TrEMBL record:
Domain Glycosyltransferase 2-like intervals: 7-174
Entry-linked InterPro entries: Glyco_trans_2-like, Nucleotide-diphossugar_trans
Lineage: Bacteria, Pseudomonadati, Bacteroidota, Chitinophagia, Chitinophagales
Entries under SUPFAM superfamilies matching the protein: Nucleotide-diphospho-sugar transferases
Listed name of the protein: Glycosyltransferase
Coiled coil: none
Native organism: Chitinophaga solisilvae
Molecular function via GO: hexosyltransferase activity
């Protein structure tokens, strides 16, 4: 049996309001020599019934149902069963534009790339107020081949840490034992950073092919202790770079990214209107993070040193 060209892995959990739009976008593409793997991660709404309807219309779809284990677990479950040359992980509430996968595969084949990044835009939960000005900032005109070329756009957040707008060569993921970190929110941070670090070549399709739905119930709008996972994963990335002997090489860029991620958590807490007490507690925990305090102390010390030199110079 011929190997499928692409495995499309769709993790599903309680997305009855958005699932049909997502599947319609995926299934409007040519499914010849492609496999669609839907992993129902223990949905308790009508998502299972919706999946069944699509399975009847498209018998080639493969459906798995499992106990709820979280997004990472569902993605890993699908990845373990995927057989395609390439793999992609669209979120079940997003939109995939016609021809999106074709364009990404064509670029991967043309450039012999391990990862292909596509631009995306954001839109509201109701599907209105499209914001086509929001997409990956970096217009990458040439392949990213060296380690520095691959990592700099991530450190500067010119290329997003999202998993769902990227196509991966499956053999590359397998050879590097790349799977999703279970039990954490913001698992994309760990997966994408490690993938970019290990990749031989990363290329970009400078066209908005994916629509990212901003939901009212998103992680950043529902504040609890799990929002601190963003900081925890940043600490894990620091340990990873240290083990690779690269932390000093990228210290300044890593520190800047660490600060940005901490500040994004602080911003989410400040903007939260539902539980001010919890927000205050979480803000305190972020500000007490030992590494953040160390970074800020070091930069403040350097700033004072520069101001002193400036004073005596004039």
């Amino acid at each position: 049996m011929k190997q499928p060209e692409l495995s499309i892995i769709v993790p599903v959990y309680n997305v009855e309001s958005y699932l049909e739009a997502c599947l319609d976008g995926i299934l409007q593409t040519d499914l010849t020599n492609r496999e669609v793997i839907i992993v129902d991660d223990g949905s308790t709404d009508t998502s299972a019934q919706i999946i069944n309807r699509y399975k009847q219309r498209y018998p080639g779809i493969t459906v798995y149902r499992k106990e709820n284990g979280g997004l990472s677990d569902a993605r890993n479950y699908g990845l373990e069963r995927a057989t395609g040359k390439y793999v992609i992980f669209p979120d079940s509430d997003d939109l995939v534009h016609a021809g999106a996968f074709d364009k990404m595969i064509a670029e991967a084949e043309r450039q012999h790339a391990d990862i292909v990044v596509a631009d995306y835009y954001e839109f509201s939960e109701e599907g209105k107020h499209y914001r086509k000005d929001r997409y990956d900032k970096a217009i990458i005109e040439k392949p990213l081949i060296t380690e520095e070329e691959r990592l700099h756009p991530l450190f500067l957040i010119d290329v997003s840490f999202a998993v769902w707008n990227k196509l991966y060569r499956r053999s590359f993921l397998s050879e590097n034992n790349l799977t999703f970190l279970k039990g954490f929110w913001f698992e994309d941070l760990d997966f994408v950073f490690t993938a970019f670090y290990r990749a031989g070549k990363v290329v970009k399709v400078n066209e908005m092919l994916i629509g990212y739905r901003q939901r009212s119930g998103s992680i950043m709008k529902n504040i609890n202790n799990k929002i601190l996972d963003k900081v925890t994963i940043m600490e894990k990335l620091g340990v990873f770079l240290d083990k690779e002997g690269k932390i000093e090489k990228y210290r300044r860029l890593y520190d800047i990214l660490f600060i940005k991620m901490c500040f994004s958590v602080l911003y989410a807490c400040i903007m939260n209107r539902n539980d001010k007490g919890k927000s205050k507690e979480l803000i305190g925990k972020v500000l007490e993070n030992p590494y953040l305090k160390k970074i800020l102390r070091n930069y403040l010390s350097r700033y004072k040193e520069l101001k002193t030199k400036e004073k005596y110079y004039f």
